[in-house]
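Submission sheet (multi-component)
Chains listed below:
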Amino acid sequence: MLSSEEIIRTIEMLKNENLDVRTVTLGISLRDCVSSKAEELCSKIRAKIKRVAGEMVAVCDRISDKYGIPIVNKRLAVTPIAAVAEGLDRGEYITVARTLDQVAGEVGVNFIGGYSALVQKGFTTGDRNLIATLPAVLSSTAHICASVNVASTQAGINMDAVSLMGQAIKEISIATAEQDGFGCAKLVVFANMPEDNPFMAGAYLGYGEPEAVINVGVSGPGVVKRELERALQSGTKLTLGDLSEIIKKTSFRVTRVGELIAREVAELLGVSFGIVDLSLAPTPTVGDSVGEIIQCLGLTAIGVPGSTAALALLNDAVKKGGAFASSSVGGLSGAFIPVSEDLNLSEAVANGSLSLEKLEAMTAVCSVGLDMIAIPGDVDAGTIAAIIADEMAIGVFNHKTTAVRLIPVPGKGVGDKAVFGGLFGEAHIVEVRNVACSHAFVGFGGRIPAPITSIRN
Amino acid sequence: MSPLPTAIAEAYGFLRGRILKSSEQREWLSVSVMGYDRPGIVAAVAKVLFDNSCNIEALSQTVLMGQFAMIVVVAPLAGSSAGTLQAGLETLAAQMKLAIHMRTLNPTEHQAFDVGNAEPFVITVRGEDRPGLVLAITTILAEQGVNITCLGAEVVPVDQRLDYIQIYEVDIPNDMDFSRIQKALREKGAAIGVTVDMQHRNIFRAINQI
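Outcome: structure written.
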């Protein structure tokens, strides 16, 4: 039975607490489009995306109206292009990317993920072609998001790939220097990359996924923060256990919303429903910040001692509530700490509370990694590769997903600010200490073997 | 505000089966009771009904600002006399200072208004209390042919402030464009200075219920 309190509470969550669905992402397999002729491949890709996703935005808008829940982003994820375009020449990869970019714009989504390669154990020719074309593609397209999986718990860390990604990030940064290296914001380097992640820039459709599938990312941190504030203002004496319980219940609610919307969109589009991703994804809006939740938990700023423990509590409570709400949980499912996309994190960098090393420590207990971090433009590729290697090690050896999305900002250094705009926000540049001290380590190349804990059978 | 009797509406499908079956046999009666709320009203009414060989088929009761209100649908069993029942209820009304009304229901009145295939929506109206708010909203619903299944209005505390809130549960026929009604309600709300939202009922269930 609905009570008036429940109705009023729900309306409050919608109106004043930023309860929304962060992303509805339609995964589309392009495996049946494969051709050794670029023109034919592009034509098949265009036809398939138009056919499967043509109505997606309209359907999402209708469902959004019906339930009064904003769906903030509508996106596509496709089969890794390194595999789809495997038979093509390197230059033709760019043609494929432009086709994807164009058709994404035509169906009205803001991003299409899947300009991707999985190279944790080694490269195919197609993988190398894709990585080599990242600077050209990410500097000349509007909607394409790219990701490269360089490590996994089963395979270890492909350090040759890590080096290549360090170089690619530098080249993309230079190619998009006029936008403060914004091209790097559309590239994620992963360990244990999930096949069903709906969030950009790391979304792609994995090889084990169905023909077409809807995956959904739930609402952001604003709702959790407001619930915590409400409880704290009530004057009741609360322990961290009580606060964890509040987060858990809120996570349950937002997950239920996500699943309701996702199932209905999937049904109307005639495709499978995949997963609900429980990640708390912040936006550069006041009141929608993971950093502000950490402050609610009694810390003056994210990054001060206690932050890793607070983030662990938050992440765990979100998962528990979400897992109870839905039996189809997947993707990244953890609290994000993307520095430029979270106003509070960005400010914590500016006032010195938050360092790169603390961010790295926090990624051991949350999702997803060193995310949207602007670094000085003069940090070299070898140092970037070493930072990637550290982050990959956290993922590989702890059986979790980690990722790196670093943005070297050409011509800027610590104390400057990079401005990306929109959802990507703006970022104070984070200091990178001990630059150019890791070249010999990275230069060994080869593979860091998989950890002993990967042998579980 | 008391809970909205959604569950009662949901039980309707089950009840309707019973009602239709029983209604083939005989006419039923509706008894409505109003008055100042205090202990013993339901028991007193039930005693009169029992003494007059009536079986209670469905009952709904609420209290609004101290005012008791109840509607009972009863099936008279063999040996029951409408005249004796009427007299018993009139005596009770006089004794307890209640307004009691009894009415015979013909078989077609046993069934709820049939909207056909419809989806349940919840309309909420929030803002400063003033005359004419219910009129403004319900006029639009009436014009569009939307049936209200439940309605409540009350001043409630939300965080640090008081809000006047109306909550309508309505059935929107599937062949009707809900966005057109949404638009009409929002425009009317904006014109009279209140916020009007209309959302499918499932969103409230998803958020609040396991």
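Remark: Chain B touches chain A at residues 1-7, 122, 124, 126, 152, 154, 156, 158-159, 163, 165, 167, 169, 178-179, 182, 197-209 (CB under 8 Å).
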